[in-house]
């Protein structure tokens, strides 16, 4: 299993963050705080008919104060529960939302790279992650 001390974990999370932040449009909240990929994921998963357990878990953690911290916690939660590919796929289904959050160079806006990314993430479902959440 992959643990918190595994180099592979840091590589996976870094690459995931890079993909989620690449060509992300700059958006700001009502109070001027810059939004990031956590806000994209949160909004995309809010469309679920039932609340996503990962979103519920992350928003319940009082010590997480920044969107980046929430995003990282969400990625870890999804790895442990083998939900990363499915969660991201749900967020990528709405092309209008994708265009609202990402510029044209984002790999999420091109069908072939998006399919390759999701395919790789579904392969991660076969790996066991034992992480401190």
Shape: globular
Number of domains: 1
Mean pLDDT: 92
Largest sheet strand order: 1-2
Q: What would the CATH topology be?
A: Methane Monooxygenase Hydroxylase, Chain G, domain 1
The end-to-end span amounts to: 15 Å
The CATH architecture can be given as Up-down Bundle
Described by strand count, sense and barrel closure, the largest sheet is: 2 strands, parallel
Features:
single chain, 133 residues, mainly alpha, Methane Monooxygenase Hydroxylase, Chain G, domain 1, two-stranded parallel sheet, 7 helices, 2 strands, globular, zinc, lysosome
Give a description of the structure:
The protein is mainly alpha-helical and 133 residues long. It has a single domain (7-125), classed as Methane Monooxygenase Hydroxylase, Chain G, domain 1 (Up-down Bundle), CATH 1.20.58.900. The chain has helices at residues 7-21, 37-46, 53-60, 67-80, 84-92, 95-101, 111-124; strands spanning 2-3, 129-130. It has a two-stranded parallel sheet. The two termini are 15 Å apart. Residues 3-133 form the RUN domain. Keywords: Autophagy, Coiled coil, Cytoplasmic vesicle, Lysosome, Metal-binding, Zinc, Zinc-finger. One of its GO terms (molecular function) is zinc ion binding. This is RUN and FYVE domain-containing protein 4.
SSE blueprint:
Blueprint: E1 2-3, H1 7-21, H2 37-46, H3 53-60, H4 67-80, H5 84-92, H6 95-101, H7 111-124, E2 129-130
Parallel strand pairs: 1-2
Helix pairs in contact: 2-4, 2-5, 3-4, 5-7
What does this entry show, briefly?
The chain is mostly helical and 133 residues long. The protein is built from 7 helices and 2 strands, in the order βαααααααβ.
